[in-house]
Amino acid sequence: MTVAGVMSGTSADGIDVALVQIRPKGNGLKLELIGHEAFPFTPVLRKVILSAMDAKSTSTADLARLNWRLGQAYVEALRATVKRHPVNLQLIGCHGQTIYHQGATAMYAGRTVACTWQIGEPALLAAELGVPIVSNFRPADMVAGGQGAPLVPLLDYVQFADNKRARVLQNIGGIGNLTLIPPASGINKLIAFDTGPGNMVIDALMQQLFQKSYDRSGKIASRGHVIESVLSATLKHPFFRAKPPKSAGREEFGAAFAERLLQLCQEFGGSNEDAITTATALTADSITRAFKEFVQPRLKSNIPVDYIVSGGGAKNKTLMAMLQQRLEPLGCNLLESSDAGIPVDAKEAMAFALLAYYTWHRRPANVPSATGAKRPAILGQITHA
Ligand SMILES: Nc1ncnc2c1ncn2[C@@H]1O[C@H](COP(=O)(O)OP(=O)(O)O)[C@@H](O)[C@H]1O
Ligand SMILES: [Mg+2]
């Protein structure tokens, strides 16, 4: 089957599309990436998405409009991708844009509620592309008792499981998350969780201090110094201590968190560059801490570990150098997913192509050990053309 996966993450930088050929092979599946393309959001669309996510002031009417406007953006991205890579597209898996995610239950209107909301009207995609769409993947896992995230571990397992080597798949999008696949283990032995901020805090500070949406190649971060006292103060956030499974978003590491980090840097007398370097070190340190506390204790000593990085953060050279410096002494071999055959921008989009394929075949695709679900669940809704 030829399946397109469409991903737009918490960075709200744009849309990634992957075209994937999926074939049965032995007991498993073989995935071949036919092509992948990235489409940045226009500044005005990015602005309304960000204001809807960090929502202090949005209206129901705006959310409804954004649902349809995002549907149009996904249609345009898919059209352009299929034009560049002509294929006979059969199915689309579209993650949508997360507007709100609360994986754990909390009191609301007299009952405990957990919730998640991804938008981007699938009826538009089905009508315009003429193929079925699978969307709204997360709720079925939450109903099964999970956090609705992470869902990428299925792809991680299919692509990267190894008999001899432990593999850690570290994605660095807006949020950082990892999947551990111990050597020669079944999918029920995976662990996966969010490690904390990925690029989100760096991006917020770049916007405020340098009027840029991100720190290209980590250039600004390479010019500043880490302010250790600020780093250790921000690492006290209870999220880093919490045991997996756990998930994070703008609710934890959005504008308010970035503002506090900046304030601490300024009180110390740090430069704007120092604030970016310190935010970059926070990402590297939180990833390292997650590995040390929650991953390493589960591995036999002397097992070789490939630490495979994907997502936009893999292009931040300063961040990658910080990770190398911290993780190599712990016995990790740091790689980019591109070195292991999957371009850093394509992995999450490929995952949603695979998840759609599972749903189409009525197969459960959540990984209960990763999401905390009590049972397997068939994910998402199908909108027919
Ligand atoms: N060339 C680059 N140099 C440094 N950082 C980059 C580069 N390209 C992308 N990024 C970072 O990656 C982010 C997007 O990563 P992505 O994997 O798409 O995350 P998400 O899934 O949250 O959308 C950008 O917001 C930016 O911070
Ligand atoms: Mg993105």
TrEMBL record:
Pfam family, one: AnmK
Known pathway: Amino-sugar metabolism; 1,6-anhydro-N-acetylmuramate degradation; Cell wall biogenesis; peptidoglycan recycling
Alphabetized GO MF terms: ATP binding; kinase activity; phosphotransferase activity, alcohol group as acceptor
Cited InterPro entries: Anhydro_N_Ac-Mur_kinase, ATPase_NBD
Record-annotated membrane-spanning stretches: none
Catalyzed chemical reaction(s): 1,6-anhydro-N-acetyl-beta-muramate + ATP + H2O = N-acetyl-D-muramate 6-phosphate + ADP + H(+)
Enzyme class: transferase
Binding, ATP: G9, T10, S11, A12, D13, G14, I15, D16
Organism superkingdom: Bacteria
Entry coiled-coil feature ranges: none
One of the GO BP terms on file: 1,6-anhydro-N-acetyl-beta-muramic acid catabolic process
Keywords, ordered alphabetically: ATP-binding, Carbohydrate metabolism, Kinase, Nucleotide-binding, Transferase
EC number in record: 2.7.1.170
Purpose of the protein: Catalyzes the specific phosphorylation of 1,6-anhydro-N-acetylmuramic acid (anhMurNAc) with the simultaneous cleavage of the 1,6-anhydro ring, generating MurNAc-6-P. Is required for the utilization of anhMurNAc either imported from the medium or derived from its own cell wall murein, and thus plays a role in cell wall recycling.
Family: Belongs to the anhydro-N-acetylmuramic acid kinase family.
Protein name: Anhydro-N-acetylmuramic acid kinase
Species in which this protein is naturally found: Alloacidobacterium dinghuense
